C-alpha cells in the first residue's frame, strides 16, 4: 500500500495534515506528500525524502496566479502518473478540481476528498464538479456541518474537526474580572483587512485593552501600517508560529478574536481553528453574528457574537465580562469538546477503513 497526500498549499497552512500522517505512520503505510512552497522558504536539503515540493511564488493579482496553478497541476499529475499510488488524499476542493479528470477516471472510489472551505462553489460548473468528485470519492470529509448548506446531500460526507494540541488542554479559565488590561488575541493567518480595521477602531487606544495579532500576514493585509498611520498604539504583532506553540501563545490572551464578518459563504459556514482553541485553552471567543460559528458559540455559551456595523464592540465586551459565568463557560467547553472528540474518533475509524 502506498498513499499520496495532495495539497496546493504550504505545510504551515494545513495543520490537519498531521492527523493523516500520524495514522499512516501508525499503520506503517508508505506515503508521499505533494506541497506548494509559495514563498521559497523550504530548502530542498531540509525537506523530508517523501515530500515533493513545487516551488513558485504567488503574486497578489488573480491573473498572475493562473500560470503557477497550471504548472502545479502539471507537476502533480506527472508525479501521480509516474508513481502507482493505491490511494490518494486531496486536501480541499481546488487542487481536486485541477486534477479532476485524473481522479474521476483513474481513482474512482480510491481517493479521499477533504473539504475545509467554501471556494468557488458559487460558479455552477465548479459546483457540479465538486459534487461529482464527492460522488466518485471513497469518502469526503467536511470540517463544518454548515457546509451542507451549499453541498449536495451525500452518504459519503463525514464530519471532521481541526482540533489539535489536545494534550495541552487547560482545565480552568483565568479571565480577568476587573476589566483592566484585557488582551484580545488573533492567532492564525491574518486576513480580513476591513473587519480587522473595524475591530481596531472599536478598541483604539483604550487603556484597558491590548490587541495582539500572531501569525503569517497574508498579502495586502497592511494592519501594521494602518495602526501607524492612525496613531494606534495598543496593537502589537508577532510573526508566524508552529502549531505546537499555540498553548504558550494563548497564555497571554484573554479573548479570542474570531470575527470575520458574515457577507459570504466562506465565513458564514466555516468552523475555524479558533473555536477549538477556545474550548481547549478555555478562552472566551468573539465571533461574527449570523454565522454557523455564532450558532455554536451561543449554543455552548463560549463567548459572544457581534455585528461590527451595528454594535459597539467595546461595550459588548465589558458587558460580557461583567456577567461572565465561568462555570457555564467551562461546561460549554467540555460539552463541545466531548462531542468533537467523539466525531473525530468516528472520522478516524472511517479513514482507517479507507487505507486498509
TrEMBL record:
This is Glycosyltransferase family 4 protein. The lineage of its organism: Bacteria, Bacillati, Bacillota, Clostridia, Lachnospirales.
